[in-house]
Amino acid sequence: MHNMTKVAVDAMGGDNAPEAIIDGVISALKEKDDIFCYLVGKEEIIKTYIGSKEYPQDRIEIINATEVIETAEPPVNAIRTKKDSSMVVALNLVKEGRADAFVSAGNSGAILVGGQLIIGRIKGIKRPPLAPIIPTEKGASLLVDCGANVDARPQHLVQFAKMGSIYYENALGRKNPKVAIVNIGAEEEKGNQLVKETFPLLKECKDINFIGSIEAREIPHGYADVIVCEAFTGNVILKMYEGVASTFLSVIKEGLLSSLRGKIGGLLIKPVLKSTLKEFDATQYGGAPLLGLNGLVVKTHGSAQKKEVKNSIIQCATFKELKINEQIQEKI
Amino acid sequence: MHNMTKVAVDAMGGDNAPEAIIDGVISALKEKDDIFCYLVGKEEIIKTYIGSKEYPQDRIEIINATEVIETAEPPVNAIRTKKDSSMVVALNLVKEGRADAFVSAGNSGAILVGGQLIIGRIKGIKRPPLAPIIPTEKGASLLVDCGANVDARPQHLVQFAKMGSIYYENALGRKNPKVAIVNIGAEEEKGNQLVKETFPLLKECKDINFIGSIEAREIPHGYADVIVCEAFTGNVILKMYEGVASTFLSVIKEGLLSSLRGKIGGLLIKPVLKSTLKEFDATQYGGAPLLGLNGLVVKTHGSAQKKEVKNSIIQCATFKELKINEQIQEKI
User: Fold this and answer.
1) Residue B1: which pLDDT band, with cuts at 50, 70 and 90?
2) Contact between residue A292 and residue A266 where contact means Cβ atoms under 8 Å apart
3) What is the rounded CA–CA span in Å between residue B199 and residue A137?
4) Cα–Cα distance between A280 and A220 in angstroms, integer?
């Protein structure tokens, strides 16, 4: 068990729980043999489902938790009152040092609150940001923060930039990643109060490769590796991505189906389109880490399927192996 | 001249000036005979270009202006110092009541600053928002504010909602438009400080059809008609739209060109794709109005071609005919 990465998995969280979660766990364990998973949730349900499966039994432990935090529950209250929920029990495994990481596809707010309240922040970290990988024309960028800390202050954004750089460099393997701040124009004097105050601080920061402002238009083109912004803005960016892409596809699809010529063309391009869009699928990178905690918390999409869950768990092993948290502790 | 809409057009602003601007003006005058345009800019250049054209000479007047405000110039300084620029001279025509509206594809910041400093706000209006039309799956939505007032306060957003409703109802002809505020979740308690303070004010507001929060993901699907947000957020939304759409298209195109099958399919779908994307082209609605001024200011894209310029000018006639400013004055 010494070099194992131990992951506490919320078996009850997400639209496709527990099936997709359990399948993802098994798939991850089969792919990498240095991972151990705690499946946390209603024991009976987990046992019934996993019973029919073939899996490495010595690397899964089922931990019973009788409650479930639902998607729409107010987060703080849920974490405080549902002490025997799969999420709280799993987070406690990380707190107690029995697990290195926590993965959940459940209530996002509860994951963010629970991570901070139960696992706690690395000393010196003011606000732990949620940092999803977003696909770009050139590969992938890291968006920090995308939902954890609305109304953040300049000092917080500087920490986001530093932690984001460390994470990106290690997890995506690109040295000296380009860091940019989201702005509404390229010039230094542009922006709202927060950006204007943060810009000079980032410029002074020696630990990062700060390239200046990035306009939202340039984000999908991949002009920066680490994209720093306040959480409200980050959330808007992430969701515009999903919204524009899905609207675009449905409008194109509808257009193609409206004529015979379009239908035939559509059939011909389908395989190419599929593989092209696959490259544009961020789930290959796993879920979004909540950076700066005494342990790793990974939030996967509520709609996550087996593959994304698997990648999120493998991501935890990478995080541990590359000692990302140790680097954050050292450099912040 | 009595029922004419008189538009002061900045003939020197934008990437394609003066050609696209002059062509757009001529095209608008040919389409509607109750429009009169002042072409403001370097007389010699305008005369040389327009000389070879056929146009209604009694409805165009060339007004000489010897200076040009460049795209990258700091706006406030440019408006203050370049008194004989096409932009300042044209804005003064509106101020003096000789023109009803001002159209420019030039320096956005200068248009916003010049509109406020020279034409001035309607009494009671705190901050005039820039309100572009964005295409959606269901038609079009109005995004207020998308760049004029960063760090706006709750009272400003309420005015944006009211003015946006009046504009949308008249210009797009849909009664009782649905108004939503951009948020990072559907529940009332979600959001940053600004949204939390604005939400109850919008809820209380009897003049608008407030439907609550809208997540960025839902904007392209057209769930709301008037989308209210602070300018930084609005700018990010607008630019993500452009960025994701263009990246998506270029990735798909590259994918199609990588195989023979894709190439043939691509040829077949081209006409359908083209007409589909045309529906998704907001330039059919003209430019973005700066609402709440004593006269209309319309900002068109810097890259505007003839068609968008034409539609922006026709938009000014609609604005005058429907007495949108009188309604704003009355209801704010």
Assistant:
1) low
2) no
3) 37
4) 10
Q: Looking at the DSSP assignment, which residues form a beta bridge with residue B141? A: B134
Q: Which two tokens stand for residue A252?
A: 């194109």
A-chain residues near B219 (CB < 8 A):
240, 243
Residue in the structure block whose two tokens are 């406690």: A92
Phi and psi torsions of A56, nearest 5°: -70, 95
| Closest listed residue to residue B105, CA positions, set B184, B193, B41, B176 | B41
Q: How far apart are CA A146 and CA A149, in angstroms?
A: 8
What are the backbone dihedrals phi and psi of residue B162, each rounded to the nearest 5 degrees, phi first?
A: -70, -50
Each residue of A118-129: pLDDT tens digit?
999 999 999 999
Asked if B220 lies within 8 A of A243 by C-beta distance, the reply is yes
Residue A127 token pair: 């606000």
Q: What is the 3-state secondary structure (H, E, C) of chain B?
A: CCCCEEEEEECCCCCCCCHHHHHHHHHHHHHCCCEEEEEEECHHHHHHHHHCCCCCHHHEEEEECCECCCCCCCHHHHHHHCCCEHHHHHHHHHHCCCCCEEEECCCHHHHHHHHHHHHCECCCCCCCCECCEEEECCEEEEEECCCCCCCCCHHHHHHHHHHHHHHHHHHCCCCCCEEEEEECCCCCCCCCHHHHHHHHHHHHCCCCEEEEEEEHHHHHHCCCCEEECCHHHHHHHHHHHHHHHHHHHHHHHHHHHCCHHHHHHHHHHHHHHHHHHHHCCHHHHCCEEECCECCEEEECCCCCCHHHHHHHHHHHHHHHHCCHHHHHHHHC
- Specify the amino acid at residue A231: A
Residues A118-166: pLDDT tens digits? 999 999 999 999 999 998 988 899 999 998 888 999 999 999 999 999 9
CB nearest to B248's CB, from A187, A248, A255: A248
Chain B positions in Cβ-Cβ contact with residue A219 (cut-off 8 Å): 240, 243
A243 touches chain B (CB under 8 A): yes
Q: How far apart are the first and last CA of chain B?
A: 30
Per the CB < 8 A criterion, the answer to whether A244 and B240 are in contact is yes
ipTM at complex level: 0.89
